[in-house]
Design a protein that fits this description.
heterodimer, A: 110 residues, 5-stranded antiparallel beta sheet, 11 strands, B: 112 residues, mainly beta, 7-stranded mixed beta sheet
């Protein structure tokens, strides 16, 4: 069974304090790893898709990386508006569905 | 481009009552998903449609949950009868075949 585990469950940072969120996965035949951002009361919003080990993608203060067993979401010099829950999900085998981790709740204090 | 629409946004019911949620996907998206997100957890797939047909409903509690997608467009998800543990956000998502999934805002259900 495909499994996705995210850590930490919650992370509180000061504005400007860089850190990383982890997503480890166990799947058969990874087709893609997805990062979503979810604000309170809203649906998940797409950030990145990674397809193969060694791949990296960046968007503003966020950078996602992928290895054969895990992915990291690095956040550099975060701002309060980066506060949200970050969800990691995998798409594996022939299935189109995404299997999600439990999320990391990120809070950036001004 | 309009996003995925869901209604209602909030619903409060008593246990053993029935409830229905509606989803209108992005125009042209053949694949539609219903996910359940319990507070503090990631979304869990309930059912996936490809046009009118069901692709995956392995995690749908079929004794109380049902879903349909008429004419391959709108979809409804029904719970009958509801239990306390059904309190969650119900997310609808759509995608073109084998591409990026877009989520709606969700329906927040509270069962008392």
């Amino acid at each position: 069974e495909d499994q996705v585990t995210q850590s930490p469950e919650a992370l509180r940072l000061q504005e400007g304090e860089s850190s990383s969120l982890n997503c480890s996965y166990t799947v058969s035949g990874l087709r893609g790893l997805f990062w979503y951002r979810q604000d309170p009361g809203k649906g998940p919003e797409f950030l990145f898709t990674l397809y193969s080990a060694g791949e990296e993608k960046e968007k503003e203060r966020l950078k996602a990386t992928l290895t054969k067993k895990e992915s990291f979401l690095h956040i550099t010099a975060p701002k309060p508006e980066d506060s949200a829950t970050y969800l990691c999900a995998v798409q594996a085998g022939r299935a189109q569905k995404l299997v999600f981790g439990q999320g990391t709740r990120l809070t950036i204090n001004p | 481009e309009a996003g995925v629409a869901q209604s209602p946004r909030y619903k409060i019911i008593e246990k053993r009552q029935s409830v229905a949620f509606w989803c209108n996907p992005i125009s042209g998206h053949a694949t539609l998903y219903w996910y359940q997100q319990i507070l503090g957890q990631g979304p869990k797939l309930l059912i996936q449609f490809q046009n009118n047909g069901v692709v995956d409903d392995s995690q749908l509690p079929k004794d109380r949950f049902s879903a349909e997608r008429l004419k391959g467009v709108d979809s409804t998800l029904k719970i009958q009868p509801a239990k306390l543990e059904d309190s969650a956000v119900y997310l609808c998502a759509s995608s073109l075949e084998r591409t990026l999934m877009y989520f709606g805002p969700g329906t927040r259900l509270l069962v008392l």
